[in-house]
Write a structure and sequence with these properties.
Order of helices and strands: EHEHEHEHHHHHEHHHHEH
CATH architecture of the largest domain: 3-Layer(aba) Sandwich
Strand order of the largest sheet: 3-2-4-1-5-6
Number of helices: 13
Helix content: 40-55%
Oligomer: single chain
CATH topology of the largest domain: Rossmann fold
CATH superfamily of the largest domain: P-loop containing nucleotide triphosphate hydrolases
Radius of gyration: 20 Å
Shape: globular
Number of strands: 6
Amino acid sequence: MIIVLTGATGSGKSKMAISLAKKLDAVIINADAFQVYEELSIATALPSEEERMEVPHFLFSFVPLNEGYNVAEYQKDLRAMLAEFAQRKKNVIIAGGTGLYIRAGLYDYRFQEEEEKMDMSTYENFSNEDLHAVLKRLDPVSAEKIHPNNRQRVLRAIEICLRGGKAKSELEQEQTHAPIYEARFFGIASERQSLYERVNARVEEMFEQGLIEENRRLVEKYGRDVPAFRAIGVKECFPYFDGKATLEETKELIKKNTRNYIKRQDTFFRHQFDIEWIEREEEILEALKLG
């Protein structure tokens, strides 16, 4: 049995997943794009070592912080885990709020192999606007979806066009994106205002736990350009480190960016998955019994 437990940041997924796993004799597999990284504990609200010892946890805190990790790699790792636990007839709870990771892992998403990396140095000195203009010429549909300032995604879409002769949008249309695993999707429903209040309290708690100290130490160790530092709770601290923002301004920026992320999560979940929305763990247990 595969259960997906998702919901907005701060909705209580981690604790509910642990409690549910104990009752269902299940393992927990991470579905948070930043909880895969080592050392980045406070900003990502990584379950503590004690919590991860209560039931088996997988795909948590295993990628070195100075290395990249993407959705295609997650897809391979998740599917390998699912194959192993299916063979062992073990229940699985996939818990996390990164909707794209969940969808790529459980649905018919195919990624082009990265073995023959193209030389994209021609575009190194292009401005973001000029680069986006190239994409618009090659693949107008993808250009509409990708913001000009998201340079990495723009370059990737251009590379796909140049390598295969087909636009990224064409390749996406050829895929059915149908589910390839039988899974029950449960989402923790939270009233928006109370969720925001919990997020605000959690941000304050992160600072009390040493968010600034952890981020400063990691930035001094690795620099600012590692992919993991795109996580909310890290990049907002850079102006503070530079003396351009106060501690309170930094806190408020993290809270604001988290609220905006919650809105995007909600939109994705409601449009991409057939989710059974619940408020309590007992509702999941009842649904599984009746299902």
